[in-house]
Write a structure and sequence with these properties.
This protein is of the alpha/beta class. The chain contains twelve helices and 21 strands. It has a domain of about 240 residues: FAD/NAD(P)-binding domain (3-Layer(bba) Sandwich), CATH 3.50.50.60. It has an eight-stranded mixed β-sheet with strand order 7-6-15-16-17-14-18-21. Strands 9-3-2-13-20-19 form a six-stranded mixed β-sheet. Helix 1 packs parallel to helix 4, helix 1 runs parallel beside helix 8 and helix 10 crosses helix 11. The longest helix is centred in the C-terminal third of the chain and has 32 residues. It is globular and about 65 Å long. The relative contact order is 0.17. It binds flavin-adenine dinucleotide. The site of flavin-adenine dinucleotide has 33 residues, from helix 1, strand 10 and helix 8.
């Protein structure tokens, strides 16, 4: 059955698709969210994002999502850079210096799964949002008036949905991007990252809730995810050709953790997974009425916690443009501006910063390491430099810069 409706079709009930639907609804625009997962397996997704920066918290607050996330997350005003070789804290940054820049001078450690759980519940309650769970998007067509999405239900029934625009919030494997023939430009790192989830409170060793740890042999990230009971995640690099089963064997995980921090007894390991890291940006963010947002438009290393955050920023920017189109403004021009603003941020901010973050942690040259660490110390110890540094890492600067692009 084909329904012709004055709405936006959104593929994917990830954080980007759901924030877009909620913001559009706030502006009076109806949408249909198409999600392949079912209600009974929606929360079984692999662990991913968890750090939500101040700029993003303001946007969550705008749609009423923040107040649902705060009680489920950890407020983290501090983050640390450590030198693992010397077991030394290099620099502590405190978001308090952003007190005049944001109502949220801290990061919120709150996992992607909790974000989508809360946002999905809100979307289901909103009369302007139709959520179609257990529905696989398989392709689309567009014409002068709108778009037709092809979908398949869990029973194999095929259907066609009609809308004025289609937004791909499907993640990195976006079918919309491929069908539009848009290049996903960039590269993939040959090494993979190992994530180990541990029940242990690392704060007793001086760590903060978020720690970036440099080491010429084995850099790592250490993040507090939830608690009590305590749950932390430690990320380590691995070689691309190492056997995944050997890397994630319980003994191998334990040995790696004890090498990182010997605690005199075994760590309680909750789980582990390996992931490949890509640095890619789509050559275009829209083609006609088909628009890319979030991971379908750009992917990056998670060091710095920017993928989800910048994707949510895409969603809010795009919602504003679509709402203007609904009020009668010219569509093509609005979407071109969305592309100019958000693609610029993906290329000039997110990509550059995440590539730099990894290089900083993995640097092997002792002289360069020393220089990098001295620079971090200098920035952390001067409140003005610390503010400048945090405006960039908290993505406030990227939002301000995007707003200046016509
Ligand atoms: C280990 C790790 C840690 C990370 N940590 C951070 C962090 O701390 N901070 C941060 O900002 N980012 C982080 N990221 C990145 C972050 O997880 C992603 O950028 C973010 O989830 C992208 O959101 P999205 O909504 O664009 O896509 P996704 O989260 O991938 O959601 C896409 C949705 O679309 C659905 N879908 C896909 N295909 C179809 C289809 N054909 N039909 C119907 N539905 C479909 C999927 O089921 C899914 O629900 C991390 C990533 C990893 C791997």
């Amino acid at each position: 059955m084909e329904s012709s409706e004055d709405r936006v079709l959104i593929v994917g009930a990830g954080p980007v698709g759901l924030c877009l639907a909620l913001k559009l609804a706030k502006d009076g625009v109806a949408s249909t969210v198409i999600e392949q997962l079912r209600d009974d397996n929606f929360l079984d997704q692999v662990p991913r994002a968890g750090t939500n920066h101040p700029a993003t918290l303001e946007l969550y607050d705008d749609i009423g999502l923040y107040r649902r996330l705060e009680p489920r997350g950890i407020i983290a005003p501090l983050f640390h850079y450590w030198d693992r070789e010397k077991s030394e804290l290099i620099a502590e940054f405190d978001h308090a210096v952003l007190g005049n820049d944001t109502r949220f001078p801290f990061a919120l450690q709150c996992e992607r799964i909790k974000i989508v759980e809360e946002a999905l519940a809100m979307a289901k309650d909103n009369p302007l949002i139709t959520v179609m769970m257990a529905t696989v998007f398989t392709g689309f067509d567009q014409d002068g008036d709108g778009v037709t999405a092809f979908v398949e239900s869990a029973d194999g029934d095929r259907d066609r949905l009609r809308g004025r625009y289609i937004v791909s919030a499907e993640g990195a494997r976006s079918i919309v991007r491929k069908e539009c023939g848009i290049e996903f430009e960039g590269f993939t790192y040959p090494d993979r990252t190992l994530n180990i989830e541990v029940a242990y409170d690392f704060r007793r060793h001086g760590y903060s809730d978020r720690n970036y740890i440099s080491d010429p042999e084995e850099w790592s990230n250490l993040f507090h995810w939830k608690g009590p009971p305590e749950r932390w995640r430690v990320h380590f690099p691995t070689q691309g050709d190492e056997d995944p089963d050997a890397l994630t064997a319980p003994d191998a995980l334990q040995t790696r953790l004890q090498h990182f921090l010997p605690i005199g007894r075994p760590f309680e390991i909750i789980g582990s997974n390996l992931y490949t890291v890509h640095q890619r940006v789509a050559a275009k963010f829209h083609r006609g009425r088909a628009i890319l947002a979030g991971d379908s438009a750009h992917v990056n290393s998670p060091i710095g916690g920017m993928g989800l955050n910048s994707g949510v920023h895409d969603a809010f920017n795009l919602a504003e443009k679509l709402a203007a189109i609904w009020r009668g403004e010219e569509g093509g021009a609005r979407l071109d501006r969305y592309e100019r603003q958000r693609r610029h941020i993906a290329v000039q901010h997110t990509q550059q910063q995440t590539i730099r973050n990894k290089k900083l942690l993995a640097e092997k040259d002792p002289a360069v390491r020393r220089r990098n660490h001295d620079e971090l110390r200098r920035q952390a110890s001067d409140p003005q430099l610390a503010r400048k540094f945090l405006l960039r890492t908290s993505l406030i600067e990227s939002l301000r810069e995007a707003a200046r692009i016509q």
